[in-house]
Amino acid sequence: MRRLLALLLLPLLLAVPALALTERDRALIEATARNDVEAARRLIAEGADVNAQDDKRDSAFLLAGAEGRLEILKLTLAAGADLRSTNRYGGTALIPACHHGHVETVRELLKTAIDVDHVNRLGWTALLEVAILGDGSARYIEIARLLLARGANPNLADRQGVTSLAHARARGHQALAAILAQAGAR
């Protein structure tokens, strides 16, 4: 009987963070998803929690970073966004912002104390995401420059021991590889 009760309660216990969301918090995440800046501003002013996470582990702050919602990102930062909070992949807001090539979002996040070398569950940093998932275009080059200027370690490797430089070279991203090499990448 205890085992059956435990099996029935386990899904509820795992969903507690999502259940802790208020309607206002959920509305803020939805406003962020559709880039409704005025709704987000109003909801934050009314007390919505910019760090509250839904069942996908998205918060208004994390989603604004990932989707390049710059104005909402600024609102969440001003409202006390937790720079150490992580998404379902274990990444901070900086990592998907870099992955998706959101230059201005990255620039804004780098004005904060966010960990530029945070490693997500895939074993990747923001700089590794630029090299692995970026297309080598000007926006990814700029993001790499920003990360390196902020002190990103160009020699951190993924779980297979492959560095950003090796990934850039393997993908034919010569301009990115040159910037990494100039920054001391091996």
Write the layout of secondary structure elements.
Layout: H1 2-14, H2 16-19, H3 23-33, H4 37-45, H5 60-67, H6 70-78, H7 94-99, H8 103-109, H9 126-133, H10 138-149, H11 164-170, H12 174-182
Helix pairs in contact: 3-4, 3-5, 4-6, 5-6, 9-10, 9-11, 10-12, 11-12
Walk me through this protein's architecture.
The protein contains twelve helices and no strands. The protein is elongated and about 50 Å long. 55% of the residues lie in helices and 0% in strands.
Q: What does this entry show, briefly?
A:
This protein has helices at residues 2-14, 16-19, 23-33, 37-45, 60-67, 70-78, 94-99, 103-109, 126-133, 138-149, 164-170, 174-182. The chain is mainly α. The model is unreliable at 4-18 (pLDDT under 50).
Please name the defining characteristics of this protein.
186 residues; mainly alpha; Serine Threonine Protein Phosphatase 5, Tetratricopeptide repeat; 2 domains; 12 helices; 0% strand; elongated
Number of helices: 12
CATH class of the largest domain: Mainly Alpha
User: Roughly how many Å apart are the termini?
Assistant: 59 Å
Q: How many distinct domains? A: 2
Characterize the biggest β-sheet.
Answer: none
Question: Rg from C-alpha positions?
Answer: 18 Å
β-strand percent reads under 5%
Provide the low-confidence segments as ranges.
4-18
By CATH, the topology of the largest domain is Serine Threonine Protein Phosphatase 5, Tetratricopeptide repeat
Class computed from helices, strands and strand pairing: mainly alpha
